[in-house]
Sequence to fold (681 residues):
Amino acid sequence: MSEDKSIKDPLGRRGFMSLLGKMCATTAVCSSVASVALEGVAAVAKSTPAKAEFPPAGPVPEYDWTKHRWAFGVDTTRCIGCLRCVEACKVENDVPFNPHDFRTWVERYVYLEGEDKPHIDSQSDPVNIAAAGSPHDYRFSDRYRNAKVTKAFFVPKLCNHCENPPCVQVCPVGATYKTPDGVVLIDKDYCIGCRYCVQACPYGARYFNEETQTTDKCTWCYHRITKGLKPACVEVCPVKARIFGDLNDPSSEINEFIRSHRISVLKPWTGNGPHVFYNGIDSEVT
Amino acid sequence: MHTFMHVAPFIASPFRGYVYPNETVLPWGVLIVVYPYITGLVAGAFIVSSLYHTFRIERFKPVARLALLSALAFLSFAPAALLSHLGHPERSFEAIWTAHWTSAFAAFAYVAGFYAILLILEIWFAFRVDIVAMAQTARGSTGLLYRLMTLGSYDVSERALAYDRKWTKVLAAVGIAAAAGLHGYVGFVFGSLKAREWWSSDLMPIIFILSAVVSGVAVLVLIYVVSSKVRKAAIDESCMTGLAQVLWGFLIVTMLVEALEYVEMLYRRIEGIGMIEQLIAGPIRIGLAIQVLCSLIPFLIVTVLLARNVRGRALIGWMSISSVLLMSAVLAMRWNVVIGGQELSKTAKGLLTFTPPLWGREGVVWASTLLGGSFVFLWVLARLLPPWEPAQMSE
Fold:
């Protein structure tokens, strides 16, 4: 290839090759910017969210999102499966009234005599939908009325607002993000609707809203909690199976719940660090 | 039961066992099956062209430039599959301007964009002599187009051509890495998701690259055979045997790694293995049968072709049949990964059965149109820049 070195730039292509050189330089600059950005992201991912990075005034005026750290509790020993929480959530958050879009749902675990694995269903099971009679109503059918039940309980489910949310990690545009008060939100004016986050959530907490063509999920009713109210599902629960509060406040209901129960989280092996704490579930609950 | 049919629109998939309510609508449909399939064809076709342009394996010369145009045609349609899947395609540029770098998806535009620039540059160098010739002879708007494509460079002296060859060689070499990167990245999109047992695997990027080469070589064989038949030009048997060798080599490694993936998953007996076994025996059994049979049969055919040094019409006929089967096998593999992964519930206690809609944005018709569109675009490209060697020019 030594002869190639002696070749001078043919006239007319010198300009082009110089342009090419500039393009290469631009690519190099872009990639170094990208690597710096990646390092930054890795550094943020390793540390706990630095609250100082966020200005005190978030999207809601008169609410300082650096002063709170929200968490959710579910006491399954109290849940009666009335599904008022599911209905309240749909109404409060404009969730489409169909059997496949939910910000929160309730699962029923039933162990029958002589069996070691539970029968599991939710309000979306065809039998339960038939029992409710309409997509606007939610009800658990009494399908186990004549069976010998040895153990049964209900498990409300919702977004876990994880410490290391995989949904936030995979969003290509940063439309879903974690706030300094520990809530994972979606900017529906920014979401491109690729649904990668729906895939990444191990809890099935996200759904694709056909009306807005964006992803949606539980926000712990961010519009309410930033005004000092409780999430709609917590508000309507007649048996206090759902508990919500501020971990920064030692006397909050959530701190009291965590102190007084042996709690667990769902799928801890994922390393996601869920912030929905459960009491009274067994290992079959995933 | 009638109530369920009434309230659950056709988009919800039937399920058995327990699945999360939000899972009954699969987030990714046939468009995301077609997307990695098309990018795979890009990678495979490109690697064949690099065998000539970088490694100077002369027997691949007859298809080297055809492979470059094929890669460009497929690369042009890969983003179309992604874009038409998006809920808000008009916001897709946000993934470039405000890319969120922890996402594998954010890299798509950059990886594909870099590769597209590289590919177009290589095509320009590889076709420059022809562009200059046509710019000097063609008249009217066609002539103007070719004159624009020369970028003002009309020098076709031996010195200049040596310079072109040097650049083609370098670009083809970098392109191998870029093609592997483009497709390995697609594998990473799936393999890196811990939420889905069926996808979460370190082998996924490797499987995607290997099967991409198989499908890309297969589609190139078909394009070469069909275009030669249409043009009534002779098919270079040495080239065809070379393609058979490449196919054979990549196929055996692909089958081994894919088998390893399955064996490892089944052997480890991880939690939820019962449901994985039911997935294999249930919703994806037809796809899996196509994947296995359409890999094994062509493997045997190509083995015999090479072992017995088959030539002539038999070689071309059997290679064409093998290529059709292998393209089906890889398409089935994409289905089994993308759809199969979503048919296995994240609860590990249930299975869904997905049937794609025929019409609509996520329908089979639109996905097939995109796939077919890339072949139409290849036809246009081949009219604009005939990739045929002088010896193959039809009379």
